[in-house]
Input
Amino acid sequence: MRMSVLLTLLILSVNPALAQPPGGASVAATTATWYAPKWVIDAPHAPVFQVRDTLHKYGRYADKTKAITLKDLIKFHGHLCGGLVEASVALKVGFEVLFPDGVVDRTDLRVVSSNSACGGDTAAYLTGARTRFGTHYIDTSFKGGDFIVQQVSTGKTLRVRRNPAIYPAEVKAQMKKIQSGKFTSEDIDRFGTL
Ligand SMILES: [Zn+2]
Output
């Protein structure tokens, strides 16, 4: 373990107020996966991504890759939603073209996404692109599930987008209702159910 990391951990461990989050966190709480339903995680076409990162901010690729699942994405994004799933599937298609060896290099990507919380978060997590570094661009004319992905080292660029025909009309209608501002709390629940 690196000395700086070890030192930080030691400081935290001697100060219980810092080591334990407010309210405490049991092992059960830290390993809970209620937010990621089993039927989603075990779905036959649920995408899994192998990604490569660097060991620290100045470089050197890690020897090993990491697997990112829908569960990881849901935890990062905050909820399971159609936007997250469609974005992850769309990006998977793009990655298969850019990285034929199946390993996504999260240090070598730029992305353009819509301003959607769901699609934008998914793109940021999976590509490693960052708005503050100028590698994650937002285009408000883009729909959710619509992306331009570029491999920086090769300049290889492609556009992936959702086929609008597959989007459930009921979900679209419910979204439109909520976005109009004229909705009830039941409408919010109904959207979640759909
Ligand atoms: Zn979402």
Residues 1-32 form one domain. The CA atoms of residues 95 and 101 lie 10 Å apart.
